[in-house]
Amino acid sequence: MAAHSDIYPALLLIGDGLGDRAVPELGGKTPLEAANTPTLDRLAAEGESGLMDPIGVGIRGGSDTGHLALLGYDPYKYYPGRGPFEALGIGMSVARGDLAFRCNFSTVDDGLIVLDRRAGRIKDGTAELAAALNGLQIEDVTCYFKESIAHRAALVMRGPGLGEHVSDVDPHEVGAKVWEAHSTKEGDAASEKTARILNAFVRKSYEILDQHPINVQRRAQGLPPANIALPRGIGVSPDLPPFNEKAGVKSACIVEVGLVKGLGEYLGMDVIDVQGSTASVDTDTEAIGRAVIEALQDHNFVLCNVKGPDVAGHDGNARGKISIIEKIDRMVEQIVAATGGKLIIAFTGDHSTPVTYGDHTGEPCPILFWGPTVRKDLVTTFGETAASQGGVHRIRGLDVVNILTSYMGVQEKFGA
Amino acid sequence: MAAHSDIYPALLLIGDGLGDRAVPELGGKTPLEAANTPTLDRLAAEGESGLMDPIGVGIRGGSDTGHLALLGYDPYKYYPGRGPFEALGIGMSVARGDLAFRCNFSTVDDGLIVLDRRAGRIKDGTAELAAALNGLQIEDVTCYFKESIAHRAALVMRGPGLGEHVSDVDPHEVGAKVWEAHSTKEGDAASEKTARILNAFVRKSYEILDQHPINVQRRAQGLPPANIALPRGIGVSPDLPPFNEKAGVKSACIVEVGLVKGLGEYLGMDVIDVQGSTASVDTDTEAIGRAVIEALQDHNFVLCNVKGPDVAGHDGNARGKISIIEKIDRMVEQIVAATGGKLIIAFTGDHSTPVTYGDHTGEPCPILFWGPTVRKDLVTTFGETAASQGGVHRIRGLDVVNILTSYMGVQEKFGA
Questions:
Q1: What's the average model confidence in pLDDT over B283-304?
Q2: Cβ neighbours of residue B291 closer than 8 Å, sequence gap 6 or more
Q3: Interface-testing mutation among B351, B388, B396, with chain A (most A C-beta atoms within 10 A)
Q4: I want to staple A48 with a disulfide (CB 3.0 to 4.6 A). Which of A253, A391, B131, B269 is the partner?
Q5: Half-sphere exposure of A175 (CA within 13 A, CB side)
């Protein structure tokens, strides 16, 4: 009898920045190859693996564009600039039609010459400073403002007739004067309006922040005041179809990257926070594992992102990358054991962050698929080189959800 | 001297639903891997193999969309909904501009409430019932109607100014009343006309069928009358360029799937019927082999589809799938022997139909190319796992005819 009724849930597990290059101090192995990963090796041996280009062959992507693609949304079609995702990532409400910007708290003099683009990498008091800007009304537009980590923040503009074709205000350079924004699209009244509001917002942020008690205190401590907000990375909120509808699943999102959390929320996934998740190599992967196991009780698709490999990659910390990969390996064992193996797992990265380079690169990530319905190839360990020999060959990020929903048994048929 | 003048004919042989997954009762092998296939193994050893995604990586396709792609027509561009292929598949004439629907004979009460969507899965008498509807003239439109298998039928509307944006009449639910069709495109007079004709056709089908002698007899036997025709799956006949012109060949089509036969006719291929072809595992593959050999006398491209592997896959019948694959192996030997090996062979599937799943899935099909001009790789047997190591790597259905016409020596050069 055909077991057509065998339907499995799926876990799409992302080791952020997983892919790497040969590391001399590891004898030419990558951190993934040097790590002791008995469970990932077993899954690769029992399933199939290959290489996956999140966005396209050779393309250096981000966590936002990478996750967009891995969830089946072509970032060349859907990526609206980083602003909206940044805002979503710190828990701001973003509605369709809003404009959003990433911002820095910066230090300027009274001629608006930039003295420090990051206001001395300010750590404390940004919540109060942000609150002083939040809700500013300029013409018929409301400006929502919220602090992120350190000197970072986000601005959401909500109001009628806003356009997105606007030049920068942040000169990206110390000693330069803050630029006046202008429309970059001839005759576009909406973008002219945005430029006007943006210039007014920047000016007002200086007026409000310069003598704010937090900055009075900072000056007294010899610290540069965070006396202006400089927006950049403008983006209009994207028209993304909800993930559950698009993929035919009921999904949860357990991720350590604010940007990706915001994306999950925007896509209508159930976003689950985990106590002990630190978004670094010291994160509590066992707690994340428990959250995944619990989410699989009432969801049939879980996206889980562990940020540590990317952090270690940026830090050039090969040992740290090995350590977090070994923690992920134990987490996968924990999940497989708790579910009796009755699930489909895909494990990969959203981009490569080689420890020898310290930033994202365009090489593909290794990917493995494992589960009761998954084909078996001849690969017996999990790593960049081994995966290059795998039965999956070389696929795109956009293919991953289709492969999963086929193995899950929930994909609609195209044709008869 | 280069043998530039060596031109070979090609056989594109499709084992319908060939691809599979590991089967526990076969010790983890797929049916293709478990089957005794000395000829296919030899061809794989002498030629090259790989994996082929008929429609796209991870995409669950049908026989119609799969064959469209394998013949080089992008189904995302050309697939018009199932109606036209269904009609073609049962031998109805479909012309450019016609609208076609799949239909069910159903049972309704006198308030047009659906009592049985399949009229008790009626087996006999549908030819007479269909004849009573065939040729109905409504306004300036002629309705052609023909029975298919069991409760299934097809409707072709031919006439001026018909539009395809029309809502359903089949409520897809017992206890619901037959719906009134309406145009789903604001201000589209052509679709309004189609909706009007469709509603009139459904009404007339009830008036004509309800007291038809076949139904009088069915009621006397306690069977539900097949007293209405409910169309669905509307499609406008697609604007497909003829295959011979597109591929630069003279082609024949020897296939066991009605849908694909219809496609071949529509594409202008010479469709050849085979006595003893049953579209199941008991089909006469030797007779099909003879037909292929004969067709190769006066065609340089033969598409041949053997349906059995798909039937066995749907039935969850691993032994049956092995048996029909072994028959295909002998048929290939027969064809190679009769032609002295002077041809190019591609053997693959139009989709996977794993016996453990019982329906189509999105995994790629193994594919092999063989012939005097074909490259050789390191693979020595034919099967899903072996093919994953092959020199063809992972290609798309759309690539197959191009590979064949290049090996045949008949492809036009693109460039100088």
A1: 98
A2: B254, B272, B274
A3: B388
A4: A391
A5: 0
Of A48, A390, A399, the CB nearest to B58: A399
Q: What is the pLDDT of residue A6?
A: 78
A101, A110 in Cβ contact below 8 A? Answer: no
pLDDT per residue as tens digits for the range B22-70: 999 999 999 999 999 999 999 999 999 999 999 999 999 999 999 999 9
**Burial degree of B333 (CB within 10 A; 0-12, 13-18, 19+):** middle
Instruction: Give, for A193, the enclosing helix (H) or strand (E).
Output: helix A189-209
Per-residue tokens: A226: 């965070």
Q: Looking at residues B285-300, what average pLDDT do you find?
A: 98
Confidence of residue B239 (pLDDT cuts 50, 70, 90): confident
Give the chain B residue whose CA is nearest to the CA of A406: B362
What is the SS3 assignment for B158? strand
Rg (CA), chain A: 23
pLDDT given at position A233: 85
User: Is residue A160 within 8 Å of A146, Cβ to Cβ?
Assistant: no
Tell me which H or E stretch contains B207: helix B189-209
CA distance A394 to chain B (A): 8
Rounded Cα gap, residues B165 and A45, in angstroms = 50
**Is A171 at the interface with chain B, CB within 8 A?**
no
DSSP output for A151-172: TEEEEEEESSS--S-B--S--S
Please identify which residue in the block is written with the tokens 């997105």: A164
| Distance (Å, whole) CA B317 – CA A98 | 56
- pTM, two decimal places: 0.86
CB A274 within 8 A of CB A288: yes
Phi then psi for residue B22, to 5 deg, are -60, 135
| Residue B4 pLDDT level (bands cut at 50, 70, 90) | low
Give contacts of A370 with chain B, Cβ < 8 Å. Answer: none
| Chain A residues with beta carbon closer than 8 angstroms to that of B310 | none
> Measured between alpha carbons, how far is A188 from A180 in angstroms, rounded to an integer?
17
Distance from CA of B13 to the nearest CA of A (A): 20
* pLDDT tens, position by position, A124-179: 999 999 999 999 999 999 999 999 988 999 999 999 999 999 999 999 999 999 99
First-to-last alpha carbon distance for chain A, in angstroms, is: 22
Is any Cβ of chain A less than 8 angstroms from the Cβ of B184?
A: no
Which helix (H) or strand (E) element contains residue B40?
helix B38-46
Residue A51 pairs in a beta bridge with A366, A394
Is the distance from CB of B53 to CB of B396 less than 8 angstroms?
Answer: yes
> Is B388 in Cβ contact with A373 (below 8 Å)?
no
Q: What are phi and psi of A277, to 5 degrees?
A: -80, 120
Q: Give the residue on B whose Cα is nearest the Cα of A397.
A: B57
ipTM score for this prediction: 0.85
- CA separation for the pair B332, B43 (Å, rounded): 10
Instruction: Please return the burial class of B182, using the count of CB atoms within 10 Å of its CB with bins 0-12, 13-18 and 19+.
Output: middle
Give pLDDT, residue B5: 66
Question: In this complex, is the C-beta atom of A406 within 8 Å of any C-beta atom belonging to chain B?
Answer: yes
Q: How many CB pairs under 8 A join A and B?
A: 117
Q: Which residues contact A319 (CB under 8 A, 6 or more apart)?
A: none
Token digits of residue B411: 């492809």
* Strand, coil or helix: A235: strand
